[in-house]
Amino acid sequence: MGMQQEIIEALGVKPSIDADEEIAARVEFLKNHVTSSRATGLLIAISGGLDSAAAAGLCKRATDELTQETGMDYMTLGVFQPYGEQEDIEHSYETARSLGLAHTVETNIEDTVDEIALEVEHGMRSIGQYRHLSIPGKGNVKARARMVMQYALSQELNLLVVGTGHASEAVAGFYTKWGDGAADLMPLGSLTKRQIRQIAVALGIPDSIINKAPTAGLWAGQNDEQELGVSYEDNCDYLEGKAIDPRVQKRLESYYMKTSHKRNPIPRI
C-alpha cells in the first residue's frame, strides 16, 4: 500500500460523498454523544468561514431534533471570538442568522492574548532572550485562548465543544494541538474541504460564507493555501485518491509525517 492510500485510510476519507447521507450520519453522531454524556447541547465557535458554518449547521440540526424528539430544551451556542476588531465579524453573525441560532455570545480575546504575550516576553527576558513573541507564536496563543473561553462556557452550561477540524487540515497538521485542535467532538473529521463545501450547500449556508478564502485567522493577512504552499484543490484531490503533481504530493506527505504528534495522543512510557 502506498503512502497516499495509508493516509486516506488513516483519516477515513471517502472518494466521494452524498451530502444528505453524510449530514444525517453526522447529526446522529452529535445527538448520540449529547444524550450519552447527559449534556444540554453543543457549543460551536463560528469564525465566519466555511468549516465553522458547516459544523454549526450540523449542531443546530442535531439539537433541534433532540428537542423535538424528547420535549427537552437542547441548545446550540454559537460563540464569536474576535481579536480586537475583526473585519469580517459580520460573516459570523450572518452564519448564525442563516441557521436561526437563538443563542450566541461574543468573547473578545484581545486583552487575554496580549497579557499572555507580555508575560511570556517577561519570562524570556529572565533567561536573556530580549524579543517579542513571534507572529506564529502569538497566533497559537490566540487559538488556545479561544479554546479556554469555549471550555469555560461549556463547563458552566453543560455543553459539548464541537471542533471544526477536518481531513484537509489534518493531513498538513494545520491546526494547533490543544488549541483549535482541541474539542469534545469532530463531526467534520473525515471530510475534505471540498466535501465540507458540499455539505454547507445542502445545509443552506450563504454563498458569501461558502466562497470565502480559507484562513485560520491567526494573524493579519494569513491565508491557508499561501502558508502551506498547497492549494485546497490539490489537497482534496490527493485525499480523494486522485493523482496530483508529484512535487505537491511530496510536500503534503512531508507535512503529514512531521506533524504526526498533532494528530496522536500524548505519548506515555
UniProtKB/TrEMBL annotation:
Its EC number is 6.3.1.5. ATP binds at residues 45-52, 164, 193, 215. Keywords: ATP-binding, Ligase, Magnesium, Metal-binding, NAD, Nucleotide-binding. Deamido-NAD(+) binds at residues 144, 177, 184, 261-262. It catalyses: deamido-NAD(+) + NH4(+) + ATP = AMP + diphosphate + NAD(+) + H(+). It is an enzyme of class 6 (ligase). It comes from the Bacteria. Mg(2+) binds at residues 51, 169. Pathway: Cofactor biosynthesis; NAD(+) biosynthesis; NAD(+) from deamido-NAD(+) (ammonia route): step 1/1. Residues 23-264 form the NAD/GMP synthase domain. InterPro entries: NAD/GMP_synthase, NAD_synthase, NH(3)-dep_NAD(+)_synth, Rossmann-like_a/b/a_fold. CDD domains: NAD_synthase. Catalyzes the ATP-dependent amidation of deamido-NAD to form NAD. Uses ammonia as a nitrogen source. Homodimer. Belongs to the NAD synthetase family. This is NH(3)-dependent NAD(+) synthetase. It comes from Paenibacillus woosongensis.
